[in-house]
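Per-residue structure
===
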Amino acid sequence: MIKSKKLAALAETEFISPDQAEYLEQCVEAKKNIIIAGHKGHGILILLSHLLTCIDLKANKVKQVKNIPADLEAEADYYVVGDIKEQEKSYGEILADLFSKKGAVLCLKDPDHNFSLMKIVRDVAKATGDSTKEYVMVECTKVDGEKKVVKATEIKVSPEGKIAKEDIFNVK
């Protein structure tokens, strides 16, 4: 059962199914790193804003990352990365820094963000020695002209540095 009223309301639309919404809510609560991929007009901002309502703000500190490098030094349970404008670091470098921290990251990956998520995940695991971090790549697109969550893939790195991907759902 979906606890977030906003996410539950979104699950009553064609954008996301109740099962998908419940899975993603559990990922947020488990502090998995969530990367929402797709074009800006395909619902990635909608999904990010609704997933934020799954965070218990009384028990967790949330940091919206906008000002680099200051925000990278802040400690938080959740880091939220929307569309970051011109910065000293690339979007990929910012994510690598955040993935190296203890907190979970909720972020966007649109086609303008030119980086390899798998390379970042592997490099972070190698640099930190932490292969326990979990990542979920959620894909949004348009199907028959309608915005829709179509895929979620769990990404993990083995202690040996190998990437393992598992599709949790894939709507065609």
User: Anything to note?
Assistant: Residues 18-29 form the longest helix (12 residues). The helical segments are 5-10, 18-29, 44-52, 70-73, 91-99, 117-128. The two ends are 24 Å apart (CA to CA). The chain has a mean pLDDT of 95.
